[in-house]
Batch of 4 targets.
Target 1
Amino acid sequence: MQAAQHLGAYVDYAKTDDNIIIFELLNNTFEKMFAFLPSKEQVDSLITEKKILVCYCSGKIAGLIHMDICKNISWIRQIVVMKEYRGRGIGGILLNRYLAISKDYVNEFMLWVDLSNIAAIDMYKKAGYIFDGRMANEYINKVGKIQKGD
Ligand SMILES: CC(C)(COP(=O)(O)OP(=O)(O)OC[C@H]1O[C@@H](n2cnc3c(N)ncnc32)[C@H](O)[C@@H]1OP(=O)(O)O)[C@@H](O)C(=O)NCCC(=O)NCCS
């Protein structure tokens, strides 16, 4: 399997023309109620506000991260890599670029993650995130909050 650098992977802010593929990628990956997914109009606004980074491979979108700053804390709202591109380092590239950009504005990083999502949890731990012990039990799947350590 080719690693991200051999696919010509590069990360940039999403462009206006990326809106439909971003909307579809989010909706095809996450459950609507569970992940608080943005509408098409909200995706347009998020792109304008530079809240979505995408990873392009051979000119096509291979993955994205939707980030947000709330009360001086940076949150990952969603991160997703297209199935055919997973396991090649693209999620890690997106995450590291997000952290590098955001650390100029905030020093706290948080997210909620489904505790059965081993791939995502491993990725976050490698980037320095640790569980802070908080759980949200109102969801069908148990969801834990994790926060980036120093
Ligand atoms: C989570 C996700 C974004 C990871 O993207 P990816 O491009 O496959 O991840 P990478 O190849 O960059 O892997 C980064 C690290 O994640 C971990 N990881 C990735 N896939 C894994 C798997 N199937 N099992 C265990 N660990 C895995 C590994 O620690 C890996 O590091 P390594 O390559 O040094 O072993 C991707 O699986 C995905 O889109 N999942 C569906 C959406 C989702 O669950 N998003 C997270 C919501 S909180």
Target 2
Amino acid sequence: MMRETWKNRITALLGCEFPIVSGPMRLITLGRMAASVSNAGGFGVIAASGLTRAELEKELRTARTLTGKPVGVNIPVYRPNAAEALEVAIDMGVKTVYTSAGSPAKMMDRIKAAGLTVIHKVSGLDMARKAASTGVDAVVAMGFEAGGHVGRDAVTTFCLIPVLARALGIPVIASGGIGDARGMLAALVLGAEGVEIGTRLVATRECPVPQFFKDSLCSATGSSTVVLGSQAMPIRVLKNAVTARVAGMDGAEADRAMAAQGDAHYVGDHGNKDTAVMPCGQVAGLVDAIVPVEDLLAGMVDGVRSLVDTMAAMTSGVRP
Ligand SMILES: Cc1cc2nc3c(=O)[nH]c(=O)nc-3n(C[C@H](O)[C@H](O)[C@H](O)COP(=O)(O)O)c2cc1C
């Protein structure tokens, strides 16, 4: 059965059915995961971070074999291989790049010359204005409750989205704290035209993290996360034995200690719930089941529609 498609600036820009973007997650959102999200009607993103040229090409080929729908590539601008990742994306026919962690300005000429769409992750108004002035097509506005690296301004999603929606002429994709239809509708009401989900996607069947990570997320509450690291690199993670040890360190020392844990602890078979650094947002408090990606997205889209009906009924007859 054909799914109904939403029509707004984000679905038009990204070529997806619903304005739901998968948050890039290093070594997690690879070809298979991106294809699952795009096949479910959202916009899947492959994180180029941590991949060699050959690995990124392989993940893009994997995505291409699993879906005929568009997927994007996330390029953290500060990484030394950012320019190379952009060339791979262009060569392999990607239509949208998602830049983050640094100003997109230095890549913009090449991106636009190749005719690509670009979305860029921001966490505050100044950053958003600068990104808009470089010519990005949309911003992903990430609030402080998000999982992973968070903004130094510490502005929450609820306060960030309406400010950016008012200040920018380009569309805003809300990120941070969104894991179901209620969060999605709230973001849309605040002025966003799409949402990004990270933490909620970790607890899906398709997500390639170890079971202990998914289980820890499902048993977490809203206060199970902590922001650690320096002012330069604050990161929100699930509390465990590692974070208890790191919490006593100063910022730079904490950065080093967490980097030393390595990615393998959350993507490989080497870690466990006490030794892994597990990026995770406060929305974990809402997550209590591991579900297929398709069910997650369908539940959000259908849920928004029925919530709109509920809201209309709740507010009917309010005016005299
Ligand atoms: C496990 C995990 C890993 C992440 N890794 C990255 C990353 O490598 N690069 C990045 O830009 N964002 C990363 N993020 C942030 C997500 O892309 C997204 O912005 C964030 O998860 C949205 O907030 P939410 O977790 O409340 O849904 C990560 C998030 C999680 C939960």
Target 3
Amino acid sequence: MRRLHAPLSEYTRFGLGGPADLLVDAASAVEFIDELRSAAAPHIVLGGGTNLVVSDDGYRGTVLRYTGRAIEHVGQTIRVESGADLEDLVRYAVSNGLAGLESMMRIPGWVSGAVYGNAGAYGQSIHETLARVEIWDGTERRWLSNAECGFTYRASRFKQNKHWIILTAEFTLRPGDAAALAARAEEIRATRDEKFPPSMKCAGSIFKNCLFDHLPEAAQRRVPEKLVRDGKVPSAYFLEQVGAKGEVRGGIQVAEYHANLLYNAGGGTAAQVVELIDELKGRVAREFGFALEPEVQFVGFVDRVSY
Ligand SMILES: Cc1cc2nc3c(=O)[nH]c(=O)nc-3n(C[C@H](O)[C@H](O)[C@H](O)COP(=O)(O)OP(=O)(O)OC[C@H]3O[C@@H](n4cnc5c(N)ncnc54)[C@H](O)[C@@H]3O)c2cc1C
């Protein structure tokens, strides 16, 4: 599929962003690599568009998406094409009695985006069960082991190697009871749908949670002990202290119940999102002496780290 002047608001969960000069979808890896090779610079590769803030001016170049979505398994190994919805992968694993992905139920987006950002929730992250990833490195197709992907909290080597394209992922899971796994996944689905209604236009958490050990001592002293889990402090804590909840810029709002969640209540713009992000980041820096790090990726901006 090729689309000229494709409005990226239709391809992102935030529902924001101007047009890309050209959008190209390809469902076979061979076709995708051909498209990538012939794409004029600049170009970017996107997945489900759930972790993005796209500029109101859009993107001057080509946006490519690999949409292959086949899922299969042999024994405890699942192989999935990276254009599959993460939720389809989770449901596939659960229904086949394979454990290790069920807590990631309802994290939106595709397997590609989840591998790129080492997505996770409720104590599970992609890297824990991912055995290897097939990539196109600009020259050849090859497999990277889990260690070669360099996973850390919500990050991987893909962030420093933007030309590496994720094509296939292979997971090694544990045998589990399908009914118990389905019950756990359903419990998480219900909790998440309350927090993030499926129709909500947003990008999930705007800022990454903070590693306690990396905070300035003065900030560490102000964090209630019970908030530190697995060495991390929710960014929402700091944002709440600086009055983020309920802040509004035009059509963009900070949720009243979650200080790290910005959403498009209708008619919002990307400019309003970045204005609010910068305002909140500034307030936390002034009050606590450190910089929150965005979890979302920016596309098409000239004045910030962006594609
Ligand atoms: C309501 C909501 C709740 C969320 N909750 C969570 C959560 O609990 N935990 C969590 O971790 N995240 C969460 N997120 C964020 C988001 O869902 C994840 O980051 C998701 O994994 C992004 O996947 P995507 O396919 O949408 O990626 P995109 O947003 O399309 O892209 C993200 C990055 O991946 C890169 N990329 C995409 N495809 C490829 C490819 N084939 N090869 C190389 N690079 C590629 C892109 O270039 C981009 O840099 C949430 C988002 C929303 C909207």
Target 4
Amino acid sequence: MTNDFTYGMYATLLEAGLDVGFPFLTVREYLSMDAEELPPAFIVLRHDVDRKPANALDFARIEAERGIASTYYVRTVPTVFDPDLVREIESLGHEIGYHYEDMDRADGDVEAAHVSFARHLARLREVATVDTVCMHGNPLTPHDNRDMWRDDDEFDEYGLLGEAYLSMDFEDVAYYSDTGRTWRDGALKVKDHTFGVDGGKRQASTTGDLVDLLRETPDGRFCLLSHPDRWADTPAELVTETAFDTAKNVSKYAMHVVTSRGG
Ligand SMILES: [Zn+2]
């Protein structure tokens, strides 16, 4: 499905959401509201900026042109973190969050992970307002970055509203992720599972399936995670990208068999 994860298809997905009349919430907005304040139906758009930050800016523009605000979780590794680009995404009306990987950096030492987390959060806060965070799942390390948290009060201590996996109610909100370049849950989604996801939820493979799902579920509550680096402007570019990911998925699959984490 080489046409499926193109910028054009992403715009089609957004337009379907607008057509149906879904309000779009950032993670900050979602976590700021009490359960009774939330609109009956909504879409939370979440992005992990793992690599190719220029693609994130493309996504930010595609959304802003349609009056939609979303949330970009940005890694602070040198290959991804570009202060000017982060400022530009925020200036388009989007939320910036910290895509943390401090358990990986600290090799599983919780105390050292907090020291690292505080430092990198402060670095990102020099360029943007950061109220929420979200773990980065590196399939090649043995750690789960969420394991640094003992309880919700710890987010308060950092002046944070919460964590995108841990603080959202995924029994209430249907979660779909483009990991593995399909919206379907599966073995490739190592470390990309939430707790309490309804195992019986309706599946979507292609972006077109997800468009249909939005149209058929106008009273739904959705959280859609996408990685802009996995999408391309043209189908030809996507073919190159898919070859890169296929190589990566082979090693991911091997990891899954060995560790069988996060099922
Ligand atoms: Zn990530």
